[in-house]
Specification:
The structure is a single chain. This protein has 220 residues and is α/β, with parallel strands linked by helices. It has one domain (31-58, 71-218): Rossmann fold (3-Layer(aba) Sandwich). The chain contains seven helices and ten strands. It has helices spanning 44-51, 74-84, 100-109, 115-128, 144-156, 174-189, 201-204, and strands at residues 2-13, 16-28, 33-37, 59-64, 67-68, 85-88, 162-166, 193-197, 209-214, 217-218. The protein has a six-stranded mixed β-sheet with strand order 6-7-8-3-9-10, sandwiched between helices. It has a four-stranded antiparallel β-sheet with strand order 2-1-4-5, with no helix packed on it. The longest helix has 16 residues, at 174-189. The two termini are 21 Å apart.
C-alpha cells in the first residue's frame, strides 16, 4: 500500500536546515495495522501528516496505492487523500455548530453524491456505531468517548482504504480508550489499514507491528 524511500523533511533556520525526519525507509502492506511510537519531538505527527497527504514539503520517494506521490501536483495529492484516507485526531475536530448526523455528512458533501444517498450512508453509520438516538445532538452534548466515536465514524464515512489516527485516545479515560481501540481492531479485521501514533504501550500492542522514531530517525 505504502512505500517510503529516503523520505526526509526539514525546515530552514538561520543556523541552517533543521531536520524533522531523516532517511525514512518504510513499507506498509494492504490491511496492515501499524503503530508509530517515540518521544515528543521525534517526528511521529510529522510523518503521519506526510502519509495523510497533508504536508507536501518533503524530499524522497513516496508511493501510495501504486501512485508516485512525489511526482504528483498538490491537487492530485489532495484528491488521493479525499478518496482513500480517513483521519482521526486527538482533539476530535468536530464542528460544534453541526449535529452528529451533519458532522458525518460533511465529508460526503464534498463528493458528487446526491443527498438521498448521503442520508442513507449516514443512517447506516449511525446504526453501525449505535448512535441513532444521538444523531440530532451537538458535540457539546456528548461525552469525550462519544465525540471520538463520531470522529471515527466521520473518518470512515467515505469508506477509506487507510485510517490515520494521531493519539486518538489521548483525551479519553481508559475504558473509552479501550472502546476506540477495539473498534479499530474490528475495522482492521474487516480490511481497513490503520496507522496510529500513540504513547500508550497497551494501545500500541493492538497493531501488527511497532516502529519507533527518535530525533527524526527510525530506530533499527
Amino acid at each position: 500500500m505504502i512505500q517510503l524511500r529516503n523520505l526526509e523533511k526539514h525546515i530552514d533556520t538561520k543556523a541552517g536546515p533543521l531536520y524533522l525526519l531523516r532517511q525514512i525507509n518504510l513499507d506498509i502492506g494492504d490491511g496492515e495495522f501499524l503503530t508509530i511510537m517515540g518521544p515528543s519531538g521525534a517526528g511521529k505527527s510529522t510523518l503521519l501528516s506526510i502519509l495523510g497527504l497533508y504536508d507536501h514539503a518533503w524530499d524522497g520517494e513516496f508511493h501510495f496505492l501504486d501512485q508516485a506521490v512525489h511526482k504528483l501536483p498538490v491537487k492530485q495529492r489532495a484528491a488521493l487523500n479525499k478518496r482513500h484516507i480517513g483521519f482521526v485526531f486527538q482533539q476530535f475536530h468536530l464542528l460544534d455548530d453541526l449535529t452528529v448526523a451533519e458532522n458525518l455528512d460533511i465529508p460526503l458533501s464534498y463528493r458528487d453524491i446526491k443527498k438521498p444517498e448521503r442520508q442513507a450512508i449516514v443512517a447506516d453509520l449511525l446504526d453501525r456505531f449505535g448512535m441513532v438516538a444521538k444523531k440530532d445532538l451537538f458535540p457539546s452534548q456528548l461525552s469525550g468517548g462519544q465525540q471520538q466515536l463520531v470522529a471515527v465514524a466521520r473518518a470512515l464515512v467515505a469508506k477509506p482504504a487507510l485510517i490515520l489516527a494521531d493519539e486518538p485516545t489521548g483525551n479519553l479515560h481508559t475504558d473509552q480508550g479501550r472502546e476506540i481501540m477495539e473498534l479499530f481492531k474490528k475495522l482492521n479485521a474487516q480490511g481497513t489499514a490503520i496507522i496510529q501514533v500513540t504513547h500508550n504501550e497497551a494501545w500500541a500492542a493492538y497493531g501488527h507491528r511497532i516502529i519507533r522514531l527518535r530525533d527524526g530517525w527510525m530506530e533499527k
